[in-house]
């Protein structure tokens, strides 16, 4: 059955992939943009409205006017080369912006809200691959702890309301067109410049999510799935010692440098060391078993190779 879908974050890496998929399903799409100029070349939107998720009065107006059945929050601030700044922007957008979207949706009588989150927020626990019942690392140090607490607040605002159905999709490291892993992106340039090393005694795991798989999960939960959280990741969490050298070879970059843990702590920022040495991967079992969702890119190996034109067909 066609739905009226309101999408915040329509110009982001997931949003641009999502909108055409919604159109293909026959849904009516209203895209929220911060400025009208960003509407140029935006595929899949039936209507474009201008507003900011941090401006609650304006948000109430545009959501009420759109009369959506579902509100989809795909906002993030992960643009530009400075990860700390991007993290701080995203934390504010997720906590305050998504709270505003939920409030505006509830006032407009919307029945379901779908919001994005991240599996990187899980508290590291040994060598385990983590599921949705694993705790978030709300007492993490520094800016990362601030971001995780914002994530926890956002998720609670979405799933704890009794007047609407809230679904949170926790993505892995997003890759695909216009992401940090694509040519010219932050990770791409770090690896080309030997700025992202291996840590010899590190066991950090990364779960990856192709932007197409993130978009397909959003489409899936527009009408299906109980209130709650779902990991949207591929089938193969990867140690940094596995994916980083493979990625470097695919882009024709130098082999990553190798540091000891002490050297890494002395030369790298805390968050990069955490990602390389103790971050945990996640399982997609809940989404697979309850909704039958399957990633179109089951492994980052084929996904990376396709991104760089190395996969046959």
How is this structure best summarized?
This protein is an alpha/beta fold and 313 residues long. It has helices at residues 13-24, 56-66, 83-107, 142-159, 186-192, 211-221, 240-250, 261-267, 270-277, 285-291, 300-307, and strands at residues 4-8, 28-33, 47-50, 70-73, 112-118, 165-171, 173-175, 198-199, 205-206, 208-210, 228-232, 238-239, 258-259.
List the helices and strands and how they pair.
Elements lengths: L3 E5 L4 H12 L3 E6 L13 E4 L5 H11 L3 E4 L9 H25 L4 E7 L23 H18 L5 E7 L1 E3 L10 H7 L5 E2 L5 E2 L1 E3 H11 L6 E5 L5 E2 H11 L7 E2 L1 H7 L2 H8 L7 H7 L8 H8 L6
Parallel strand pairs: 1-2, 1-4, 2-3, 4-5, 5-6, 6-11, 7-10, 8-13
Antiparallel strand pairs: 9-12
Low-confidence stretches are none
CATH class of the domain at 4-174 and 209-233 and 281-296: Alpha Beta
Number of beta strands: 13
Terminal-residue CA separation: 34 Å
CATH-level-2 architecture of the domain at 4-174 and 209-233 and 281-296: 3-Layer(aba) Sandwich
The CATH topology of the domain at 4-174 and 209-233 and 281-296 corresponds to: Rossmann fold
Principal-axis shape: globular
User: Using only CA atoms, what is the Rg?
Assistant: 19 Å
The name of the CATH superfamily of the domain at 4-174 and 209-233 and 281-296 reads: NAD(P)-binding Rossmann-like Domain
Structural class by secondary-structure content = alpha/beta
Helix run count: 11
Largest sheet: 7 strands, parallel
Order of helices and strands: EHEEHEHEHEEHEEEHEEHEHHHH
Strand order of the largest sheet: 3-2-1-4-5-6-11
What do the pLDDT scores average to? 92
Into which percent range does the helicity of residues fall?
Answer: 25-40%
Strand content: 15-25%
């Amino acid at each position: 059955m066609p739905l009226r879908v309101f999408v915040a974050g329509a110009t982001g890496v997931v949003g641009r992939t999502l909108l055409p998929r919604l159109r293909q399903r026959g849904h009516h799409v209203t895209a929220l943009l911060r400025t009208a100029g960003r509407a140029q070349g935006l595929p899949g939107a039936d209507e474009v409205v201008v507003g900011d998720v941090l401006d609650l009065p304006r948000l109430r107006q545009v959501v009420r006017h759109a009369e959506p059945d579902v509100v989809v929050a795909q906002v993030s601030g992960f643009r530009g080369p400075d990860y700390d700044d991007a993290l701080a922007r995203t934390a504010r957008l997720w906590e305050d912006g998504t709270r505003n979207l939920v409030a505006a949706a509830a006032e407009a009588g919307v029945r379901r809200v779908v919001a994005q989150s991240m599996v990187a927020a899980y508290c590291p626990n040994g060598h385990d691959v983590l599921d949705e019942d694993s705790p978030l690392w709300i007492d993490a140090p520094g800016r990362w702890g601030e971001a995780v607490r914002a994530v926890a607040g956002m998720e609670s605002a979405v799933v704890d309301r009794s007047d609407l159905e809230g679904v949170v999709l926790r993505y892995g490291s997003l890759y695909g067109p216009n992401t940090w892993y694509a040519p010219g992106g932050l990770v791409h340039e770090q690896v080309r410049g030997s700025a992202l090393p291996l840590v010899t005694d590190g066991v950090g795991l990364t779960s990856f999510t192709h932007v197409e798989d993130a978009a397909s999960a959003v489409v899936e939960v527009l009408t299906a799935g109980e209130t709650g959280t779902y990991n949207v990741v591929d089938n193969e969490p990867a140690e940094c010692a596995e994916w980083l050298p493979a990625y470097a070879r695919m882009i024709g970059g130098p082999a990553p440098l190798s540091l000891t843990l002490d050297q890494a702590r002395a030369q790298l920022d805390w968050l990069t060391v955490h990602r390389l040495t103790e971050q945990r991967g996640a399982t997609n079992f809940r989404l697979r078993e309850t909704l039958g969702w399957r990633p179109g890119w089951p492994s980052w190996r084929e996904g990376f190779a396709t991104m760089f034109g190395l996969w046959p067909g």
